[in-house]
């Protein structure tokens, strides 16, 4: 299958996140985050691994920007570590933290690469979590202050902004089922954390625009939800799961409303925040990895659905089914659901993990990733041909990184990282993606 062509102004990029690659967790005044606490808790991370060094991007950012320049991408989506800027999540900015991102942004500018900055990729300052975290409305207010600090410092050089990455993951994995930091098990009682993150998003959009930010969007994880069968019970279960993982996060920012299925779990007075939450956006970031299957809940399940495996497809070593056509289905479905309320889309994350190794010849052969990316770009092109307005595509990820509770085993990078030596080795997929980007630049 050949790689399809895209418009000449299509934005090609790569993505990372601060906690997964930076390391240097105790340097230059950075405060502890919830993920520092979580990784230090026995039994939470596979193999007892941690991110104190990770890919050492904090010290090797110049080398990593040079890799991006060699790749030829036009943009780099990075996140800023909130506890580097405000060690306790409030108060004056840490000059050393701002200084690091100053240097990184300038390095990107020198390389002709546009930064897309995400203000929050799950690393809540631990002091704020101790005061209630995303269960507290005050955290949203503090996030608005943080956004103002970062916007005032960088809006003169950064045009593309995302306040929060995947609030669904923080709410569900962090507070509802406890697999991610901060590790709470609250089930549906975690839904207020979704609302407070949405409020933080709205306050941050206002703060960024006040600081002169020109292009502000969001980045949500979405995937189609399939019923396990055609039975009415399974179809209803799929509708319930779709409301919980998709609509609960898209509807408030796009429509200024919540899906009725879960409105009863929201904090008192939530409706007064909806105008702040539904700020006009310049783009909508979609992170896509996989579909999910739902069935009617089994006896004793307090939820309105059971999760079932997605069968009949190849899998990544992160246990994700590889279903490119579900990507097309998702995007076309979002266009049908939201219509003119849906801004132009950037695919802010799409990628896969495999146990990539450096061969004796120094080469990292990853044909599965090349096939994954090619097939997902083909599905993306089909969605665009069906009328979905997509402006850019960002591969997850530039580098192999710390993959949260699974440690370092899942390798998502276009660049292999030896975590003992920090040697970077571009994989075959790096060369393939470079050729895709170059081919479009030459058109």
From TrEMBL:
One of its GO terms (molecular function) is beta-glucosidase activity. The active site is at 166 (proton donor), 349 (nucleophile). The keyword Isomerase does not apply. Its EC number is 3.2.1.21. The keyword Isomerase does not apply. One of its GO terms (biological process) is cellulose catabolic process. It catalyses: Hydrolysis of terminal, non-reducing beta-D-glucosyl residues with release of beta-D-glucose. Keywords: Carbohydrate metabolism, Cellulose degradation, Glycosidase, Hydrolase, Polysaccharide degradation. GO terms for cellular component: cytosol. It comes from the Bacteria. Pfam families: Glyco_hydro_1. Substrate binds at residues 20, 121, 165, 289, 396, 403-404. It is an enzyme of class 3 (hydrolase). Belongs to the glycosyl hydrolase 1 family. This is Beta-glucosidase. It comes from Amycolatopsis suaedae.
């Amino acid at each position: 299958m050949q790689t399809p062509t895209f418009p000449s102004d299509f934005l090609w990029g790569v993505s990372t996140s601060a906690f997964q690659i930076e390391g240097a967790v105790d340097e230059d005044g950075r405060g502890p985050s919830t993920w520092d606490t979580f990784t230090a808790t026995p039994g939470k991370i596979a193999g007892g691994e941690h991110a104190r060094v990770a890919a050492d991007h904090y010290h090797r950012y110049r080398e990593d920007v040079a890799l991006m320049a060699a790749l030829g991408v036009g943009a780099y989506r990075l996140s800023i570590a909130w506890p580097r800027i405000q060690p306790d999540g409030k108060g004056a900015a840490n000059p050393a933290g701002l200084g690091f991102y100053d240097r990184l942004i300038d390095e990107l500018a020198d390389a002709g690469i546009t930064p897309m900055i995400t203000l929050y990729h799950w690393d809540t300052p631990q002091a704020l979590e101790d005061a209630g975290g995303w269960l507290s409305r005050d955290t949203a207010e503090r996030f608005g202050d943080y956004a103002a600090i970062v916007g005032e410092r960088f809006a003169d050089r950064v045009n593309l902004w995302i306040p929060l990455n995947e609030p669904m993951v923080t709410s569900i994995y962090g507070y509802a089922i406890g697999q991610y930091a901060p590790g709470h098990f609250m089930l549906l009682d975690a839904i207020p954390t979704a609302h407070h993150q949405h409020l933080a998003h709205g306050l941050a959009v206002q703060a960024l625009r006040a600081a002169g930010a020109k292009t502000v969007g969001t980045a949500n994880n979405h995937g189609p939800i399939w019923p396990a069968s055609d039975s009415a019970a399974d179809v209803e279960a799929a509708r319930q799961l779709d409301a919980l993982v998709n609509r609960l996060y898209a509807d408030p920012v796009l429509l200024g409303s919540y899906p009725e299925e879960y409105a009863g779990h929201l904090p008192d007075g939530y409706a007064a925040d909806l105008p702040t939450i539904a700020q006009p956006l310049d783009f909508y970031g979609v992170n896509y990895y996989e579909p999910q299957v739902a069935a009617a809940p089994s006896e004793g399940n307090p939820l309105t659905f059971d999760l079932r495996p997605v069968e009949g497809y190849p899998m990544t070593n992160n246990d994700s089914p590889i279903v490119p056509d579900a990507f097309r289905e998702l995007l076309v479905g979002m266009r049908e659901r939201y219509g003119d309320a849906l801004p132009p889309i950037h695919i802010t994350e799409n990628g896969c993990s495999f146990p990539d190794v450096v061969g004796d010849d120094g080469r990292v052969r990853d044909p599965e990733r090349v096939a994954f990316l090619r097939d997902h770009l083909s599905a993306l092109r089909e969605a665009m041909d069906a009328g979905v307005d997509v402006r850019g595509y960002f591969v997850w990820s530039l580098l192999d990184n710390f993959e949260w509770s699974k440690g370092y085993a899942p390798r998502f990078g276009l660049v292999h990282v030896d975590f003992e030596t920090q040697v970077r080795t571009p994989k075959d997929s790096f060369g393939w993606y470079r050729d895709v980007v170059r081919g479009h630049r030459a058109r």
